[in-house]
Amino acid sequence: MTVKMFDKKLYPDKKVVFAVGTGRCGASFLKQLLSAEKNVASSDERSPLSDTFHRYCKWYGIPVDDAGFLHHKAKEIIKDFKTKAISFESSSYLSLSVEELYSCFDASFILMVRDPLSVAESYYRKGYYAHPYIRNNPSLPPTYQESQHFHHFLGRIVPSGSEYMSWLEMSRIVKIGWFWNAVNDMVLKQFSRIPFEKTMIVRLEDFDYGQYQKIAKWIDFKTEVKEREFLRISKKHVNTNKDKDTSEIIWTENDYNDFARVVKAMSEKLGYSCDVDELKNKKMAVRLSVRTRRHIYRQISDYSKALISRIARYLKKRLLPHD
Predict the structure, then answer these.
(1) 297 alpha-carbon distance from chain centroid
(2) CA of 290: how far to CAs of 166, 177, 284, in Å?
(3) What residue ranges do the domains of the chain occupy?
C-alpha cells in the first residue's frame, strides 16, 4: 500500500519542531516549558519503539523504507495541528532521523547538549552498557542484547568493524563517552546538510530565561511564560529528575585519560573544556553534589520516619478504644 506523505501546503501557518541530542541534556525541561504555552502542542518521546527502530537502521546502515516511520509521525503532528499552531516533540531517539523529518515536515531542530561527564554519569546510573555485548561478527548489525526494554537495545548504539574491537576494551564510563561523541557528531553532520536557519544548538549550562526567550523567538511565537514561571518549572524539573542512585561512580586514571581522548574533538566544537584536569575538577564537584544530596536524603528519611511514628501514636491514641 502506497501512503501519501504529509502535505505541508495544507498547514501553511503551522510549524514542526524537534529537540534532539544524546538525552539527559534538558530536552524534557524544554518540553515542560513549551507545555505551558497556549499555542504549542508539546510532547516527549511519543513513539519509542518506532523511533529507535529507525535509529537502529540508520546507524547500522540497514536499507529500509521510511514511509511507515514518517506516516506514524505525521499522524501525531496532524493531531497536534487540530488545536495548536506548533507541534513540538523532544526525543533523543530521533537524533539520527533529522534529514528524513526535515524533508517530510520542513521541521526545525534544537540540539540540546550538556557536558559529557554529567551525561556519562547519568547514563551510567541508568544502566547503559551494563551487560557484556555478544557479537561474533562486528561487520554485521548486532542481534538483540540483554536490556530492560527492547527499545533500549535499539537505541543504545555501538560501533562496528575494527572500531568495535577497540570499543570492547573501553570501561563502561568511556563507552558512554563514546556514545556522547557519536550521537552529537551524527546530529551535527545532519545539520550541515539542511538549511542553517532550521537548526539551533542550546547548551544546558546556558539555558536561562534569556535563552528560553531566544528559543521562542527562533520558533516564532511570543512566550507567555514569565521568568517566575520559568524558575518554578526549572526548580521542579531539577527536583524530580535527580538520579535515584546517588552512589559514587569511581573513575580510574585510565578512565580519565581515555574519556578525555574520546570526547576531546566534540567537546571543543560544543564549547566544553574536557582535558584530564578539567574532568577531575568536574568530577570533584559532582562528588560533593552527590554527597550533599545523599546527606539531604538521609535527613529527609529520618524526619519522615519520625513523623510517621508520631502520626501513628496520635491515631492510636485517638481512634483505638481505651480500657
Answers:
(1) 25
(2) 31, 20, 10
(3) 11-272, 275-323
